[in-house]
Design a protein that fits this description.
alpha+beta, two-stranded parallel sheet, 2 helices
Length: 54
């Protein structure tokens, strides 16, 4: 996990603060993109500035 948190978001790494009704479409788009591509890591509880929100 430390290794992933040390990286920047990319085509295979996405950080999401939370999963809720306001961002569910974006989260689902990310999941589909990972499924259609080379896979990836979607990490919840971390915002774009890598601040843990849990």
């Amino acid at each position: 996990m430390k290794e992933l948190l040390s990286k920047q978001e990319s085509k295979t790494l996405e950080f999401k603060r939370e999963f809720n009704n306001s961002n569910k479409e974006k989260v689902l788009q990310t999941i589909v993109a990972f499924a259609n591509g080379s896979g990836g890591n979607l990490i919840f509880g971390v915002d774009d500035n890598k601040i843990l929100t849990i």
